[in-house]
Design goal:
Blueprint lengths: L2 E8 L8 E7 L6 H11 L3 E8 L2 E7 L4 E2 L4 H12 L9 E5 L2 E8 L2 E7 L11 H8 L5 E4 L3 E5 L3 H5 L5 H5 L5 E7 L7 E7 L4 E4 L6 H12 L3 E6 L5 E8 L2 E6 L1 E9 L2
Parallel strand pairs: 2-3, 4-6, 10-11, 12-14
Antiparallel strand pairs: 1-2, 1-17, 3-4, 4-5, 6-7, 7-8, 8-16, 9-10, 11-12, 12-13, 14-15, 15-16
Length: 265
């Protein structure tokens, strides 16, 4: 199969920062096994596959090891590619039909704005909380989970930045991934985070949009404000602006294309 494919750095204003995503433009739906093989070949945290359909585009996301239900940075990258290639006009809205429902992206004063579902926590502590904290090597102020991930609040920004989890132990604990967060230690941001998902082939994700669908409601409630600025302090790092609006979360970020080519197999 021949298809255009791109690498886009998402939640980034300059190349080689933020989170790289593959974006593949298809004319018609592709075989699931083929998409998984392409994602494994690309080796990015996620590769997005887009197919035009009625009222927008079908969108699916694959890590090198598995399909996922929701991905923020590869959605931002997909919208960016549609505008950059002229598949959408400058003022058109990007509408995606996904396993997490309809997602919409618009060009915004601060890059691209994505309208995502909020993914709030259950409020209950997971039964395996002690094992999670042992695998993270972390003492915690709070542990809970939503339908996809576990959230752990670290005691300090220093503890978050120096975290070195046992990836094999984390991978054995089930679920998609582990969000570790804390209040920011600078006036520039409201909160910080890191994200680990070794069970789906992503030891540490550089910038995780979908995690902010959980982080946004969590920190909005703690800080008493609905508009937040966040930094994911991975090695590459990335800034996410978050606006909590009821059961929706608006995520804003920039994107930069770093590679354009064609799949030939």
């Amino acid at each position: 199969m021949r298809a255009p494919i791109f690498v886009v750095d998402a939640f980034a204003s300059r190349p080689f920062t933020g989170n790289p995503a593959g974006v593949c433009l298809l004319d018609e739906p592709a075989d699931e096994d083929w998409m998984q093989r392409v994602a494994a070949e690309m080796k990015h945290a996620e590769t997005a596959f887009l197919v035009p359909n009625s009222g927008g585009f079908g969108l699916r996301w694959f890590t090198p090891a598995a399909e996922v239900d929701l991905c923020g940075h590869a959605t931002l990258a997909s919208a960016h590619v549609l505008w950059e290639t002229g598949c959408l006009g400058d003022h058109d809205e990007a509408v995606f039909h996904t396993k997490s429902g309809e997602l919409r992206c618009t060009r915004h004063g601060y890059g691209i704005q994505m309208d995502f579902p909020a993914e709030p926590l259950s409020g209950a502590e997971p039964a395996n909380a002690a094992a999670i904290l042992a695998a993270l090597g972390l003492g915690a102020r709070f542990v809970s989970a939503n339908r996809m991930d576990v959230l752990v609040e670290a005691p300090t920004a220093e503890a978050l930045r120096t975290l070195r989890p046992d990836m094999d132990a984390l991978a054995s604990l089930g679920g998609r991934g582990f969000i570790v967060t804390c209040a920011s230690d600078s006036d520039e941001f409201d909160f910080l985070s890191r994200f680990f998902a070794p069970a789906v082939g992503v030891p540490e994700d550089p910038v995780t949009g979908s995690a902010h669908c959980c982080l946004g409601p969590y920190w909005a409630a703690k800080l008493g404000k609905s508009d937040l600025s966040a930094f994911q302090c991975s090695a590459r790092g990335g800034t996410v602006r978050v606006a909590v609006r009821g059961d929706r979360v608006l995520l804003q970020g920039h994107a930069v294309t770093v590679l354009a080519g064609e799949l030939t197999a």
